[in-house]
Each structure stands twice: as C-alpha cells, then as structure tokens.
Amino acid sequence: MLRRRARRVQQDDDPLDAAQERRVRAVLALGGVPQADLPDGVQQVRLRLLEREAKGYEAPRDVSAWAAVVASNLAMDWHRAKKRQERLGERLASLRQHEHPSGEDTSVLSLAVAQGLDELPDQQRQVLLLRFFADLPVRSIAQELGVPEGTVKSRLHTAVRALRARLHEDEVV
Description:
This protein is an all-alpha fold. It contains 9 helices and no strands. It has helices at residues 2-12, 18-30, 38-54, 63-81, 85-99, 104-119, 122-133, 138-145, 149-169. It is globular.
C-alpha cells in the first residue's frame, strides 16, 4: 500500500520540491553516500515523509529542514556502515569540480575539507553539514535533532576549530 501511495505521490504531488531534493542530495553526498546511492537516499527521505503521514503525524513545520536532518541521519548510517575516507575525498572533489571548475587549488582544498570532515565525530560533522551546507539556522538544527541550541553551537564551534586546525596543519589555507 505504501509503495502504491509513494508512486502516486511521486507522480502527482511529490512531497519534496526540486530545491529540497537538491539539498537532500547534497547533504547525502557530503555525508559520504556514494553517487550511485543518492537516488535511493532521496527516496528514503520521501518514504519517511510518507510514513509520517501514514502514521497520522503532523507534517513537519519546515519540510526542508526536516528532510535535511533525515538525509544527514541517513548519511551517518552509511558512514558507520562503510570505511570510506578516500572515496569521500574523491567524490567531493569531483562534485566540486563540476560546480566550480576553477583549477587545481579548488581540488586540493576540496580534498582537504573532505578529509577533515571525515575525521570529525559524527555529531560534529552532522551539525557542520546542516549549518553550512544545508544552510539551516541553529534553531532549526536544534529542533530537528532534539538538542538545545547551545549544544548545536558548541558542536559547531568545536567542529569549525578542528577543521580549521586540520587545514592549517596540512598547509592548505
């Protein structure tokens, strides 16, 4: 029944608009999900939104923020399941080159950032991606993750400091 509903919703009234889908794809990609699995990840987010509806839960106040958090949780699941440090760097550099083909410096920076992200603890990586890549405000991140805003700010501060130190250590910036 859910599959039929999912097909009907996807054809008629997709629960994710194009911008939300791009954000979900980006969060999944930066979280380490292989390119080949991105469509499955987007479908998982759609399915979870439909499951919420089927269970009678209210629609999220901010579907975009909710979808980004679900996507980041899916990415964390993939991250825990696979050792992927080198592949993440290659994928991120590849994505970065397609978006901004600006040469070797951009590729080096992208690889360094990807490796730095990969070394962060899961919770720090998650808030960093949600805040700076998904462009969610601290309040939305805190609400969606069910933690105080101060916790989000603390994790962000620690993550940014660690990433900055890593980039200086590698003499990238």
